[in-house]
Design brief:
The structure is a homodimer of 80-residue chains. Chain A is of the alpha+beta class. Chain A has a single domain, classed as 2-Layer Sandwich (Mth169, Chain: A). Helices cover 34% and strands 38% of the residues of chain A. The first copy, chain A, contains 2 helices and 3 strands; from the N terminus they run E-H-E-H-E. Chain A is elongated and about 45 Å long. The termini of chain A are close together. The interface between A and B is medium-sized, with 32 and 32 residues. Strand 2 of chain A pairs antiparallel with strand 2 of chain B, so a sheet runs across the interface. Chains A, B: This is Phosphoribosylformylglycinamidine synthase subunit PurS. Chains A, B: One of its GO terms (biological process) is purine ribonucleotide biosynthetic process. Chains A, B: Keywords: ATP-binding, Cytoplasm, Ligase, Nucleotide-binding, Purine biosynthesis. Chains A, B: GO terms for molecular function: ATP binding; phosphoribosylformylglycinamidine synthase activity.
């Protein structure tokens, strides 16, 4: 069955504590090529079929349920 | 600065409790178009520059640090 991938990231202007912790650990490990890490969520939504209506439904779900619009942004909703 | 996106998902053969919980909630909300939801992680890694060596380094980090290879798979490592 077809899958729609929804990607959600913390808003860029907000502090990402998880990301900061990983970034600090990587710097302590000497990974100097890496300047920052931000961590978000990835949803694989298996649907019956991909139609414009289903895509719109998943987009609405991404904004209402899969993300907290106060602190997160829906980066993409893509049928794969 | 350039960004490399790392996507990590739970192994398909394993139970994804978070995903199951969200799937159940969506079905109770009457979202019958959606048969399953699986939830993983998305990392945005900001690097100094994207070279084959840096990509290989992030690939290794994805497998060693960003994911638990026992229960998760690295789905993709992509420079964006």
């Amino acid at each position: 069955m077809p899958t729609i991938v929804v990607e959600v990231m913390p808003k860029a202007v907000l502090l990402d504590p998880q990301g900061k912790a990983v970034t600090g650990a990587l710097h302590r490990l000497g990974k100097s090529n890496i300047s920052e890490v931000r961590i978000g969520k990835r949803f694989e939504v298996t649907v019956v079929e991909v139609t414009p209506e289903v895509l719109a439904e998943v987009q609405a779900l991404a904004e209402d349920i899969f993300s907290n619009q106060v602190i997160e942004d829906v980066v993409s909703v893509t049928a794969v």
